[in-house]
Each structure stands twice: as structure tokens, then as C-alpha cells.
From TrEMBL:
Residues 1-36 form the signal peptide. GO terms for biological process: proteolysis. Keywords: Hydrolase, Protease, Serine protease, Signal. The keyword Cell cycle does not apply. The keyword Hydrolase applies. Residues 82-408 form the Peptidase S53 domain. It comes from the Bacteria. InterPro entries: Peptidase_S8/S53_dom_sf (IPR036852), Peptidase_S8_Ser-AS (IPR023828), Sedolisin_dom (IPR030400), Tripeptidyl-peptidase_I (IPR050819). One of its GO terms (molecular function) is tripeptidyl-peptidase activity. This is S53 family peptidase.
Length: 408
């Protein structure tokens, strides 16, 4: 592995912390290089880490040393770096024209003034159908559903671009609602989740997390208990350890993998995303949230993270188009890739009859790609941080292999 080169995070600074918490945050605020599958990259966090209880930060990691090669016009990349829609649909055995009749909501903090325009460029680049405000396919609203949007924020705009592009890639015929919280507090983000449900979302993606606290069980019932709506949440990017709201028993907690093309039958291989003890897919036992009835692993008396997973390694990242806080095509990683990707898979699968759609995968584990290699740490019991046959913490039951594990 190459020598670490640290870069400052992007976007708004975190609220100051005191004592040991401040020391923990100062170590996490630096962006460290990823080195997975033999392809070292450097990246920067889109959002500063904030471990204050009741606060959240986004889990988007932007690769900072990608070189885009211009096409015939000398400007537009002939093929943007990073995996595009066809790659992702191939890797996860997904339909080409999924999402019809579904509405996927993206919940993020602050405003991206270029959200609609940037998503339009991404969709045009990959031949996806247009999804605009004019046609009613795309809505961008505040946490109370108005068009008076919160303050612009370059860091969260990267997260927003990533989220919109992943839903576009996986469920190109779905409608999309972007609900923007006025701040990155758990309360305002939770209000945004409620607004997304009120506006008719059938899936809601949340690519953010924060420290667990005793208030989480209250947040569960107030913000995340929406029967029949598939609510996906990133498991976190700091390796072994649990973030909220991924720990909520009402959501699908989405872990992360390294994804690479191969000559095997599937055409792809996956392993746990981990490149250091503080960089990789989040997992572990919740300290507060009760274990859902459909989760039966024995190593946690309470909720275990994650449920399922998808690509998250910045070194095997995805193409994203972003012009507020960046200058066009970028490559992104982090479990912020995986959450909207899985929300798109739920949209492809159609209406959800299960009260908590995460439970569907537990009834169909053989319909997922079981990830059996890699680890993020040394822990006990080991499955909470090390992949193996069947369920494990960093990748859950596995990654999508068609829609069966998300249908019902």
C-alpha cells in the first residue's frame, strides 16, 4: 500500500467537539487513500465527519486523482471513468428499463442548485430517458415540501449528485424526489424522510449516518417507521462500527463491497470493501435498537448491521456528473453509492407488501450474490467484520442477483 496522503474534506465544517470526541473526529476528517483490488486511489470526503449525537454526515467519497480522457469534442469524456449504468446492471443482473410506476426519494441535507441539470447530463451520457421537473418526473423540495430550498452546500451537493445518478442508473423509469433538509441534524433529516413518504415515495434512500445515541429508538418511531416503503441507509465508511440510522430496525442497512470484472460465469467478483482499519464498510451490533424478528444471527442481541450490500470501494467506484463543488465527471465510492443503488433495485422490483422490505432478503438469501472474502477488522464473533458463507456484517446477506430478494 502506498504512503498515506491526506486531503481536507469538502463542504461545510463540522460542529466543534470537545475532549476525546474532538480527537476522534480530527482523525476522521482527513481523507485517506484507498487501495483495493490493486488499484490505489486517493479520495476526499464530501462532508466533514461530525460525531455529535443527533448530527449526521454524508458517506460520499470523491476520488481526487482520476484523469478523464476527452472525446472527439475535446471536452466531453468519450467514456467517463468509473462504472456506468450498464456495468452496474450487468454486475447485479438487473433489468435495463426498471423502475416504472415507482417513486424513489433521495434525502440529503442542504441544497444542490445544479441537481437537475447535472442529472440530465448523466442520463444523456448513458442514453437514459430524460427525467425533468417540467414533465413531473423529478421534484426538488425542502423538508416541508416547498420549493423554498435550504442553503447551497458544495459538500452535500456531491452526495446529491451521486445519489441521483445511482437511482437513474438502476431505475431509469422511476420518478425521483429530492428532499433537502435545512441542516444535517437527525431531526431535520428525519422530517425529510417523513416528507418523502407524504409525497408518495415508494423507496427512500439515505446516504448519511452519525453516532448512535439513546434517542435513536425515538427517531425510529418518529421518522423511519413507514410500513411498505423501502428505506435504505448507508452502513458507513469507517470500517467496523455502527452508525445510525443504519441501525434502525425499520430500514435496509446497506454495506459495501469492492467490485471487479472477471472471466468467471458471473463476469464479476466482489469482496468486502476495506482498505484500512478506519476505512471500509460499516458493520456491527447496535447499542440501542432492538433486533428485528426477521434477523436471526446470534452474535448480536440487538440489531445487526448490515442487511445487504453493493459496490462502495472508491478504487472500484462509479461515474458521477457534478458541477456544484466540482467541475464535471468524477468517480465516487463509499456506502453512499450502495444505498441509492439498492433503493433503485427495490424500485425495479415493484410494490412492497412486507411492512419492512429488508425482511424480504432474509426469506430469499440464495437469490443474492454471497460475498465470502475480505474483512474490515478483527472482532468477535468474527462474522461481524469478516465475510464468509451466508450472513456477515460488512456485506449482509450479499449483493443483488436479480430482483427476487427485493420482491414481495
Amino acid at each position: 500500500m502506498r504512503t498515506p496522503q491526506f486531503a481536507a474534506p469538502l463542504g461545510r465544517a463540522a460542529v466543534p467537539l470537545l475532549g476525546s470526541a474532538a480527537l476522534a473526529v480530527s482523525g476522521l476528517l482527513a481523507a485517506m487513500p484507498a487501495s483495493a483490488a490493486g488499484h490505489p486511489v486517493s479520495w476526499a470526503r464530501s462532508c466533514a465527519v461530525d460525531l455529535t449525537p443527533g448530527h449526521a454526515f454524508c458517506n460520499a467519497l470523491r476520488v481526487t486523482d482520476t484523469v478523464e480522457h476527452a472525446g472527439a469534442d475535446g471536452i466531453t469524456p468519450a467514456t467517463p471513468s468509473g462504472f456506468g449504468p450498464a456495468d452496474l446492471r450487468s454486475a447485479y443482473n438487473l433489468p435495463t428499463n426498471g423502475g416504472a410506476g415507482q417513486t424513489v426519494a433521495i434525502v440529503d441535507a442542504y441544497n444542490d442548485p445544479k441537481a437537475a441539470a447535472d442529472m440530465a447530463v448523466y442520463r444523456k451520457q448513458y442514453g437514459l430517458p430524460a427525467c425533468t421537473k417540467t414533465t413531473g418526473c423529478f421534484k426538488q423540495v425542502s423538508q416541508t415540501g416547498t420549493t423554498t430550498l435550504p442553503a447551497n452546500n458544495a459538500g452535500w451537493s456531491g452526495e446529491i449528485s451521486l445519489d441521483l445518478d445511482m437511482v437513474s442508473a438502476i431505475a431509469p423509469n422511476a420518478h425521483i424526489i429530492l428532499v433537502e433538509a435545512k441542516s444535517a441534524s437527525m431531526a431535520n433529516l428525519g422530517i425529510s424522510v417523513n416528507e418523502a413518504a407524504k409525497l408518495g415515495a415508494t423507496e427512500i434512500s439515505n446516504s448519511y449516518g452519525g453516532s448512535e445515541s439513546s434517542a435513536d429508538t425515538g427517531y425510529d418511531t418518529t421518522y423511519f417507521n413507514h410500513p411498505g416503503i423501502a428505506i435504505t441507509v448507508s452502513s458507513g465508511d469507517s470500517g467496523y462500527g455502527v452508525e445510525y440510522p443504519a441501525a434502525s430496525r425499520y430500514v435496509t442497512a446497506v454495506g459495501g463491497t469492492s467490485l471487479a470484472k472477471s472471466s468467471g460465469t458471473r463476469g464479476w467478483t466482489e469482496s468486502v470493501w476495506s482498505t484500512s482499519s478506519t476505512e471500509g464498510a460499516g458493520s456491527g451490533c447496535s447499542a440501542y435498537d432492538a433486533k428485528p424478528t426477521w434477523q436471526t444471527d446470534s452474535g448480536c442481541s440487538k440489531r445487526t448491521v448490515a442487511d445487504v450490500s453493493a459496490v462502495a470501494d472508491p478504487a472500484t467506484g462509479v461515474a458521477v456528473y457534478e458541477t456544484y463543488g466540482a467541475s464535471g465527471w468524477n468517480v465516487y465510492g463509499g456506502t453512499s453509492v450502495a444505498s441509492p443503488l439498492i433503493a433503485g433495485v427495490y424500485a425495479d422490483a415493484g410494490a412492497h407488501t412486507a411492512a419492512v422490505p429488508a425482511s424480504i432478503a432474509y426469506a430469499h438469501p440464495s437469490s443474492l450474490n454471497d460475498v465470502t472474502s475480505g474483512s474490515t477488522a478483527t472482532c468477535s464473533p468474527s462474522y461481524l467484520c469478516t465475510a464468509g458463507p451466508g450472513y456477515d456484517g460488512p456485506t449482509g446477506l450479499g449483493t443483488p442477483n436479480g430482483l427476487t430478494a427485493f420482491t414481495g
